[in-house]
Amino acid sequence: MTDYKGIRTFDELLEREHGKIGTESRNEFEEKAQMFIVSEMLKEARKEAKLTQQQLAEKAGTKKSYISKIENAKGNIQLSTLIRIFETGLNRKIGLTFL
Q: Where does the record place the HTH cro/C1-type domain (predicted)?
């Protein structure tokens, strides 16, 4: 079991659990966390639009299985397809921030 004594911030917890920023373990965790966020945003937006995965796929010109993969945080997402899903399928804009 991991010792959490002395941990005072979320950043310290992340470092203890997944390593320092830039390590393979931390990069893998960060990638999965970002994928989870995107998946939840897509699910929420699709439900707000009252669309099924199939309906969204048809509007965005992709497959239901691709929508499902994104919503379940599985596989890789092609940025151009993700933008098309949000902008064409859901009539929403995507903003990107690079740090």
A: 42-85
